[in-house]
Amino acid sequence: MISVYSVSALILAYLCGSIPTAVWLGQAFYGIDVREYGSGNAGATNTFRVLGKKAGIPVMLIDILKGFTATNLAFFLPLSAIGSVHSVGFTNYQLALGITAVMGHLFPIFAGFRGGKGVATLCGMVLAIHLQAALLCVVVFIIVLLITRYVSLSSIIAGFTYLIGVTFVFQVHVRSVIIYGMCICVLILVTHQKNIERLLKGKESKVNLFKKKTTTV
After folding, report:
1. Confidence (pLDDT) at 117
2. 22: how many CB neighbours lie within 10 A of its CB?
3. What is the largest CA-CA distance in the chain?
4. What does the pLDDT read at residue 215?
5. Kindly report the CA angle at 11 between 40 and 61, in degrees rounded to 5?
6. Residue ranges covered by each domain of the chain
7. Contact status, residue 158 vs residue 122, Cβ threshold 8 Å
8. Where are the transmembrane segments (predicted)?
9. Which residues of the chain register pLDDT less than 70?
């Protein structure tokens, strides 16, 4: 049975995900709307591309925190509404909260429903649901990024790593978590379609990890 508490938490999760970190930070400190440059997305990847790591790192960390915080709102709900902390019902509601936050990031009410691709927010959600799988994804992301300097490629491979991790490495038996892993793969492929096209054509932008970014826009 859906309670007022459950609905309120979902609304709060969406509002949390809707915080347009890249847009607000870019406008406040650089006088730039990152959606007008680069890929046109309001996310960490485009912030790295347009404004450099000094702006990209805070955006990425805050976007991760958005997903983590929204997913953990489940701990503040009455257990009678969603079940015990270790129950499948509790995990399912965590998934619902996290997905709602990701949708908020993709379609933020505070930024004209023009958001980012949700990878960092997804990462925060995964951290809250399965820490070990999330850490595995982070390690893979960093390794691929250091080797290729493609944030998009690193995000795509890290996303698929989550599904592999929960299915084969950690052998999670909660069906909804496996289905969620599949959905992550589909979502990442859909939201990174243009990036994939540029990667195949060799036109995808690389991030400069070790030199200071000079903003010319």
Report:
1. 87
2. 33
3. 55
4. 47
5. 45
6. 4-201
7. no
8. 6-25, 59-81, 93-113, 125-147, 153-170, 177-193
9. 1-2, 79-83, 209-217
